[in-house]
Write a structure and sequence with these properties.
Layout: E1 6-12, E2 17-21, H1 28-41, H2 45-50, H3 60-77
Antiparallel strand pairs: 1-2
């Protein structure tokens, strides 16, 4: 079985944490597939691919949606 270096960083998954594999300059294709799968499983891949537009004066409904999007974005960046 392949040994994967892991950091203390992780994504909260409700009851536990999923450790994020650290890229070590080897097997990029394998690592990138694992990362994409992880982000897709958390509903975060669209933020990686497209990002989001930060509005200066959003109405209440848009502000709530933007806040949730920023939370998801922060999960991706960690």
């Amino acid at each position: 079985m392949e040994e994967v270096e892991r950091s203390g960083l992780g994504l909260g998954l409700g009851l536990g944490w999923t450790l994020i594999p650290i890229f070590t300059s080897e097997k990029y294709e394998f690592w990138s597939i694992k990362m994409k799968t992880l982000f897709m499983s958390q509903g975060l891949w669209d933020l990686v691919e497209y990002g989001f537009v930060d509005l200066t004066n959003p109405d209440e409904e848009v502000a709530k949606s933007l806040k949730e999007t920023k939370k998801k974005d922060a999960k991706v960046v960690r």
